[in-house]
Design a protein that fits this description.
Largest sheet: 5 strands, antiparallel
Order of helices and strands: EHEHEEEHEEEE
Structural class: alpha+beta
Oligomer: single chain
Helix content: 10-25%
Number of strands: 9
Length: 162
């Protein structure tokens, strides 16, 4: 999609300690919470490089996993209300509240699943890594210059001009 940028608003989690892959006992929610140093609202800039409509699923998935950029907002300590963060999310385009179809995610569960079952190909997760936990707003199609801002509960804000 030439000339179009795609944007996702997500919760990013920063690790305070390593989470090695393939633990002998799967990580619990409490263990994951203990491993998190901070959270922030983030914008992921999505850019598709493979545009053929008949690509097989593995190629489409691989293309989606290597995106164009990441902007991390204000870092804050993790709090208990992250189990459904979209309830506290506001999205703005050019300082005007932007409607979106909410996607209810649990960032802690997303990180737990990744740490337990999906991080083996990178040797586990490391202290200091930021982990994205999934779009709360779906994919936003940005077709013209705009100033974007996402704010979570007045505690974490991220801004981006495209």
């Amino acid at each position: 999609a030439e000339g179009v940028t795609f944007l996702e608003a997500e919760i990013a989690l920063k690790l305070r300690r390593d989470l090695p892959s393939a633990p002998p006992v799967p990580y619990s929610r409490d263990a994951i919470l203990d491993a998190i140093d901070a959270f922030a609202v983030a914008f992921e800039i999505v850019a598709y490089r493979l545009t053929s409509p008949d690509l097989p699923f593995p190629q489409r998935l691989a293309d989606c996993l290597a995106n164009d950029g990441l902007v991390i907002g204000t870092q804050r300590p993790v709090c208990s209300r992250l189990d459904d963060p979209v309830k506290h999310l506001s999205l703005y385009r050019n300082d005007v509240l932007e409607a979106f179809e909410p996607i209810h995610i649990d960032p802690i569960n997303a990180l737990m699943a990744y740490a337990n079952y999906g991080s083996g190909h990178i040797g586990g997760l490391k202290a200091g890594h930021w982990v994205l936990t999934g779009s709360m707003v779906g994919i936003i199609y940005v077709t013209s210059a705009a100033k974007w801002k996402a704010e979570w509960n007045g505690k974490s804000t991220v801004s981006l001009s495209i």
